[in-house]
Specification:
With 228 residues, this protein is an all-alpha fold. It has one domain: Ferritin, core subunit, four-helix bundle (Ferritin). The protein contains eleven helices and no strands.
Length: 228
């Protein structure tokens, strides 16, 4: 699962690199996005290798979701702003917190070392997202800024939907094998708590500092999705 997720991130960063050049975003930003592609590919290979050593099945890569996401953002400027804000700034911040929680719980040495290696890159990627979008924000006209505000709300809804399996697990009251935690798999309750901590304590305040009302974006996350 992690290998597939990291490869999807690589595809996002590759698309962002191309779109940022087309949109006229100055260096060093496109070069930094291209470097992140290599990071994510390395993560995917690392996760696949570790999984194989732990006798897990091979990862299944499906680029369909990425293709659909890119198809909804045909304009280079809009694509750059949306991907940089949602998938990189917001998404990598949440991912960083989840990896940190997984590493904290992991006991198995190989898993713990792998999660720690990826965590360092995720922390750097989320900083790249926030600083890169802050640079881009100054270049965006007001209509593009309004699109970015809507993208922030929709992106928050998408991120929340990704923890739905953990919420459903908690509702069913199913037991959680502690052996999974030793391998860095988060208890559903920890996953949910970590997600909302990341959103409330990190993402929303940073959105507000950028010029996007974070609490309003959170409040309107499903309203914006329904109105898409």
């Amino acid at each position: 699962m992690r290998a597939a997720e990291e490869l999807r991130s690589a595809l996002i960063f590759r698309a962002l690199t191309r779109a940022s050049k087309q949109a006229g975003m100055p260096e060093p930003w496109p070069r930094r996005f291209a470097s992140a592609v290599k990071d994510e590919v390395r993560h995917a290979r690392l996760c696949a290798t570790v999984g194989q050593q732990l006798r897990a099945g091979p990862p299944r890569y499906d680029p369909t979701a990425v293709r659909l996401r890119l198809a909804s953002l045909p304009d280079a400027t809009t694509r750059t702003a949306a991907l940089l804000l949602v998938e990189v700034a917001i998404g990598e911040t949440i991912s960083m917190c989840l990896f940190r929680a997984g590493r904290r719980a992991a006991v198995e040495p190989l898993t713990r070392a792998t999660l720690g290696s990826i965590l360092r890159d995720e922390a750097r990627h989320q900083r790249l997202g926030w600083t890169g979008f802050a640079c881009l924000w100054d270049l965006l006209p007001e209509p593009s800024r309004e699109i970015a505000r809507r993208e922030a709300a929709r992106g928050l809804a998408t991120c929340e939907r990704q923890i739905a399996p953990a919420l459903q697990w908690l509702q069913r009251g199913e037991p959680f094998d502690p052996a999974y935690a030793a391998l860095g798999v988060l208890h559903p309750e920890v996953r949910v708590e970590t997600f909302y901590f990341a959103v409330e304590r990190l993402v929303l305040p940073r959105l507000t500092r950028l010029g996007i009302d974070g609490p309003t974006a959170w409040e309107n996350r499903y309203r914006e999705r329904a109105g898409a």
